[in-house]
What we know:
Strand content: 25-35%
Number of helices: 7
Number of strands: 16
Amino acid sequence: xxxxxxxxxxxxxxxxxxxxxxxxxxxxxxxxxxxxxxxxxxxxxxxxxxxxxxxxxxxxxxxxxxxxxxxxxxxxxxxxxxxxxxxxxxxxxxxxxxxxxxxxxxxxxxxxxxxxxxxxxxxxxxxxxxxxxxxxxxxxxxxxxxxxxxxxxxxxxxxxxxxxxxxxxxxxxxxxxxxxxxxxxxxxxxxxxxxxxxxxxxxxxxxxxxxxxxxxxxxxxxxxxxxxxxxxxxxxxxxxxxxxxxxxxxxxxxxxxxxxxxxxxxxxxxxxxxxxxxxxxxxxxxxxxxxxxxxxxxxxxxxxxxxxxxxxxxxxxxxxxxxxxxxxxxxxxxxxxxxxxxxxxxxxxxxxxxxxxxx
Length: 359
């Protein structure tokens, strides 16, 4: 054989293995659409090849693509309000992994944290994935698979809405004090109270004995496809085959729903419950500057029926989307627009607003 042909034959022999290696790599594209910096963290499951880096920073608008082994399993989350103290220790106000560095190096997120969980190339060659609020919530998140929907379904999942502002008072994690405090995360009832009934432990460790609570339903009603408690598998675990994944922090709810509308998804529940659409955070001032707008709403609210679907026009100057919800106090209800303005009203039976358009 002509020795000049050896490199060619060597390449031809190994080409199938190289192609196999490429096919077996999954891509995670992680995008930060938040208005602030986040620090994603990654924890690899036991006996799996570690996915590096285990932590990094993403500025607002930035993205990062990772090559992930096809048999990888683990979880990914976003940390917020991170800083380095005078001793050089790195830490975060929410979802900190406790490593003291940007990289988590084998440590998981301290609750509360919104988690995306993956098991790639599992049973029947399928990827299994979910977005979990079982450990609480700190950031909106959307996962969009791009794979073989005929084999796995490949539905998008996540929690697109900001649950921090409407978080029940018993579960709130706040930054600041008094009237200037701001909710930055929402704990699970298990973490907040430690009751086996909420933790699905001890006498409540089966699907028959551990049921959804009023607190887990707060998460489930707003984000129907997300895990809300330990036995929420049926409507919260999704599969796909040979997929890459787009993972978006702080997705824009209406834009995302419009883009996803063209996808034929097999999920049993909608991605967002419009009757509980809460977007934005409270202003520290508590109420908007326009008393006239508040008065207009106060005149209309007493006419609403409990749990009814409603639609009415709002001044064009105000934002388009609102939610009416219990504030957690005995005094009032809150209506919050997507700019974060907060409107307080006397407590009434809970009402749901299905869609409100500005005019």
